[in-house]
Design brief:
Elements: H1 2-15, H2 17-22, H3 26-57, H4 64-75, H5 90-122
Length: about 130
């Protein structure tokens, strides 16, 4: 899901690169980066929500709020340890943490590529 979201967002940015290159003001570039960032955060929240829905559907936590709380802290690798999966399921939290780290790294790399492209637009001689 995350990869599909990033590919679709990347395709949209590439399709609009002419428009983006023409609007090189600080405000327009800032707004573009904010939009990209918000889309990436939304993807992460949706993915953590899917994990939470799985936990809740399996009856691993008493309510969806606790499921989402556990999922977000596992996905982000915060892991306070105040809410835990049942013993038989405990490795699943680690799998979610590994997925979260990898997907956050992918998002960071994508954001870096977008920022690099913006700087190339602003200074085409540096490319």
């Amino acid at each position: 899901m995350h990869i599909t979201g990033i590919v679709l967002l990347g395709e949209q940015l590439v399709r609009r690169r002419g428009q983006i290159a023409q609007k090189l003001s600080l405000l327009s570039m800032s707004l573009l980066l904010i939009r990209v960032f918000l889309i990436l955060v939304a993807l992460h929240l949706i993915e953590a929500g899917i994990w939470a829905a799985f936990y809740y559907a399996r009856g691993l936590f008493p309510d969806i709020e606790t499921s989402l709380y556990f999922s977000l802290k596992s996905y982000s690798t915060v892991g306070y340890g105040d809410v835990l999966l049942p013993h038989a399921w405990r490795l699943l939290g680690t799998v979610e943490a590994i997925a979260g780290v990898l997907l956050c790294g992918l998002s960071a790399a994508f954001l870096f590529a977008v920022v690099s492209a913006i700087f190339r637009f602003r200074n085409p001689d540096a490319a």
